[in-house]
Specification:
- The structure is a single chain.
- Helix 6 crosses helix 8 and helix 7 runs parallel beside helix 9.
- With 350 residues, the protein is α+β, with helices and mostly antiparallel strands.
- The chain contains 12 helices and 13 strands.
- Among the domains are: 126 residues, no CATH class; 111 residues, Endonuclease, Chain A (3-Layer(aba) Sandwich), CATH 3.40.960.
- The strands form 4 sheets. The protein has a 5-stranded mixed sheet, with helices on both faces.
- A hairpin with a 4-residue loop joins strand 10 and strand 11.
- It is 40% helix and 17% strand.
Length: 350
């Protein structure tokens, strides 16, 4: 007897080829002519099927693969129309299965996004699945329910709806107590180019995780990694787009007078400075964030009064529009010939 083929009036072996996996809901089985009583019979101990989650059936008796567990969790959590079957590859419309109001988040999502230090899917006993706050679902089996007042737009990875990296990170960190793991995941997010530090800080703040000392320490490492990456991109912008070499990471000051502040790049012959804005202020505001911003504004206004053009650059612009940012700097350098000479300033190593 072939235990992989259900004993039903409408054989379901063809569905494995259609769906690409052998996981269906009770409603989907009914839509294919399998009554509830027969589904129950097939899922009895020793039978050819297994009930993997409430209302979700594995169409074979062996252990589920990681892919089958992922899709089972999504089928359990999704708000699927009665009798609905997810869109299939080759059918009209989206090629990926549709799981309304559900997406994978947490560590499993980071693994799907490609984080090198995230655990492999087979090692995870449960998968976090993000759903709207008011959904009446409970965590069970391989499904751990995570709720959100408003769902982000999911990204699709190998046919699986996955929470964006900042949200997935926040949900992963919420369940982690090991400081080294948290630090490694946060810094990897930036160094790997997965997202901006500011987006991570916003999600961690929203999740009320910045009252945990090990998370605060990891955020400091995240911001340091973000600045280092932005500086590297700034060096590459100057080199790859043929800009003249500036003085890097210097302090400016008036002869015999006060220090004016540091800049990331300065062209003395053009009186043009570039400053990276790598701040990641916490929503709601903190005194140190306000002080940092006030100091930046004060410094910029003072330099501009002295005739120095300050080009403000963010890490995201360097990442997403480097050519455009190079054009802005080049324009400022070219325009220096038409400006009044600036005050003489001293260039000091920072």
């Amino acid at each position: 007897m072939n235990h992989e083929t259900p004993l039903s009036p409408l054989p379901l072996h063809h569905l494995a080829g259609v769906t690409g996996r052998r996981v269906l809901t009770h409603a989907q089985l009914r839509a294919h002519g399998v009554p509830a009583a027969e589904t129950g019979a097939q899922c009895r101990p020793g039978g050819p099927w297994r009930q993997l989650l409430p209302g979700v059936v594995l169409l074979h008796s062996g252990p589920p693969t990681s892919e089958e567990r992922l899709h089972a969790v999504l089928l359990y959590a999704a708000r699927v129309r009665t009798g609905g079957v997810p869109a299939q590859p080759g059918a009209e419309g989206p090629a990926a299965p549709l799981y309304p109001e559900a997406m994978i988040t947490g560590l499993a999502a980071l693994t799907l996004h490609g984080f090198p230090s995230a655990p492999p899917l087979p090692s995870l006993e449960t998968f976090d699945v993000l759903v709207p706050r008011l959904r009446r679902l409970r965590s069970t089996g391989p499904a751990r329910i995570v709720r959100a007042p408003e769902l982000p737009v999911p990204e699709h990875v190998t046919g699986v709806p996955v929470a964006p990296v900042p949200r997935a990170l926040a949900d992963a960190v919420a369940g982690l107590r090991d400081a080294g793991t948290v630090r490694r995941l946060l810094t990897e997010a930036v160094r790997g180019g997965f997202c901006d530090p500011a987006a991570v800080v916003r999600e961690l703040t929203s999740a009320k995780l910045l009252n945990r000392p090990h998370v605060v320490d990891a955020v400091d490492a995240l911001l340091a990694a973000g600045r280092a990456l932005a500086e590297s991109r700034l060096y590459r912008m100057v080199r790859d787009h043929g800009l003249p070499d500036p003085c890097w990471n210097v302090d400016l000051g008036l002869p015999g007078g006060p220090r004016l502040g540091g800049v990331d790049a300065y062209w003395p012959e053009h009186s043009v400075a570039v400053e990276l804005d790598t701040r990641a202020p916490r929503p709601g505001g903190r005194p140190e964030d306000e002080a940092q911003w006030s100091e930046y504004v004060r410094k910029r206004e003072h330099l501009e009064r002295l005739g120095i053009t300050v080009v403000h650059v963010t890490p995201r612009r360097l990442r997403d529009a480097m050519e455009q940012q190079a054009a802005v700097v080049r324009t400022a350098l070219m325009a220096s010939a038409e400006r009044e000479p600036s005050a003489y300033v001293m260039v000091l190593p920072r």
